[in-house]
Write the structure tokens for this entry.
Amino acid sequence: MKPSRSRSRSHSTEAAALALLTLPVLLAGGAAAQTLQNTGALSFGAFSAGIGGTVTVSPLGARSKTGAVVLATQGGTPMAAQFLITGTPGATYTITLPSDGTVLLSSGASTMALNGFTSTPSGANVPLGGGGTQTITVGASLTVSANQAPGNYTGAFSVTVNYP
Amino acid sequence: MTLRPGPQSPAAGCRLGARTAAALLLTIAPAWAAWAANGGATASATVVEAVPIGLPATALDLYLGQLSPAGPFVGSVLIRVIGGINDEPVALQLPARQTVPGDAPLTLEGGPALLGRGLATAITAHMSMSSSKEQAREAQPVAITIAFN
């Protein structure tokens, strides 16, 4: 027995109505204005490259180096990036940071790769807290090549927070 | 009274289904966007040019400006960078120890620093020598060439 046309149309109309009624409820209850706002840039300060190495800025803003890199105390203040997350109080979220080598700082044709992104807090199921806001700080490690060309290097990266 | 649906072709039913799906997508998409918040940030670094060893852009006028009356000599060391490579400041890596005439070890403190071209900057020097006042009076400013990295 074939379903009638009117029954088919009725199902479609019901589906649309259900969607319109249900989704606002989901929106209001599960994801109320979750935002992630950048409030501070990541800065590695100034250094000379020598025969290369790495410069690391921790999520606390502490700078360290490996190899022949010489860190300079002038010419820029090392800082960790800062984000302000706003959302439902008590909600948990997961922080996703860029993968190694996917973010480059560039100055003209010269580049340096950012690796080892770390954050505080970090990982999965991070509680947002009762206030509904939290600050995330992000650090990374910069790979400096031998005789890296002098210059001001800039780049951009993204951080994602997912709510279960 | 009986309400009857009006005539509708199968094609019209398909259109309605497509509209419903589109409406769902339009409604769901912002919802998913709200569940995954994204934030962008900038990153920066400044690579400065180091002065190689052997270039004429070396340290000049390095002397002990102040001598303690007794004990290890402690004084300020003036370094001035002349010449240079470009308009950027240069990075200077201080050696851990320098030897002055008489084989007295001289330790410079301050670590790597950036020196502006033509500017003088002062760092602290500790010299381990005899602590006698006589020798301190006889001490003369010493000229030491600092190796840039």
About this structure: The mean pLDDT of chain A is 83.
